[in-house]
Design goal:
The chain has 53 residues and is mainly β. The protein has strands spanning 14-19, 23-31, 39-47. β1 (14-19) and β2 form a beta hairpin.
Length: 53
């Protein structure tokens, strides 16, 4: 079953997901630290070390 119950995350500002065989790339919008009222994007890559490509 996906996602595993102990790793479930709810991200209210999700902008994009790129799901591959061995990795997932998530792009989220977050408030800008330098410009009030603006947003910036953070991109994080997660790897599946058990994937057999």
């Amino acid at each position: 079953m996906w996602p595993p119950a102990d790793e479930e995350q709810l991200i209210p500002r999700i902008a994009a997901l790129d799901i591959g065989k061995a990795e997932l790339v998530a792009c989220v919008r977050v408030p800008s630290e330098s410009r009030a009222g603006k947003r910036m994007q953070e991109v994080t890559t997660y790897f599946d070390h058990d994937a057999r490509c």
